[in-house]
Amino acid sequence: MRFPKTEGKTAWVKPDLMHITLTFLGEVEDDRVNDLISCLNSVAFQPFNLVLNHLGFFPRASHPKVFWANFIDVAALKKLSDQINAALPEFKDNHLFSDHVTLARLKQISEADRKTIVEASQKCVLEKKELRVESFVLYKSVLLTSGPEYSVLKRFSCRVS
Predict the structure, then answer these.
(1) For 88-118, how does the pLDDT look when each residue is reduced to its tens digit (9 = 90+)?
(2) Average pLDDT, the chain
(3) Domain range annotation of the chain
(4) CB atoms within 10 A of CB 3
(5) Mean pLDDT of the 23-37 span
(6) How far apart are CA 1 and CA 128, in angstroms?
(7) Which secondary-structure segment (H or E) carries 49?
(8) 111: which strand partners?
(9) Residue 83: per-residue pLDDT
(10) If one looks up domain 9-157 in CATH, what number appears?
(11) CA quadruple 74, 76, 77, 81: dihedral sign
(12) Could you tell me if 43 and 84 are in contact, meaning their C-beta atoms sit under 8 angstroms apart?
């Protein structure tokens, strides 16, 4: 998809920073990271596939702030998210799980730009490409003025219990 030019600011997510948030932990003290890793080591899951489904906007198309893609048949992804949350009872995530990858953040978008962006996204046909999920990652994120900076704390590979 070639995104239309707009007057507002569009911050595209770099491909190497794209991810699916399975659970949001918020502020975690550095001395608790080893506890997190220990708890997450107990999560067992089999590899599974995800297939891109469609494009959308948060909070809604009439007021877009985030442009995203989601997936078809997310039962295995939701189950993995639930397992992660169950393994982290001390780090309760009150956010609802939302199977999506953020593609861009839209800022200062005029009504004309909003219509152009929404119409372009509705005309887009996504290639139904399969993505193989064989691991999940514990990231540390730091929000900078230039955007988020992620660093991998630990990658957890799939394994059957």
Answers:
(1) 988 877 788 899 999 988 888 888 888 888 8
(2) 89
(3) 9-157
(4) 15
(5) 91
(6) 14
(7) strand 48-60
(8) none
(9) 95
(10) 3.90.1140.10
(11) positive
(12) yes
Tokens linked to 72: 């078809």
User: Counting runs of H as helices and runs of E as strands, what totals does the chain give?
Assistant: 3, 7
For every residue of 90-114, DSSP letters joined together read: TS---SPP--EEEEEEEES--HHHH
**CA distances for 87 relative to 26, 138, 143, 153, angstroms:** 16, 13, 26, 17
Burial of 121 (0-12, 13-18, 19+ CB in 10 A): buried
Instruction: Report the share of the chain in percent with pLDDT over 70.
Output: 96
CA distance 161 to 159: 6
pLDDT band at residue 4 using 50, 70 and 90 as cut-offs: low
Report helix, strand or coil for 70: strand
93 within 8 A of 24, measured Cβ to Cβ: yes
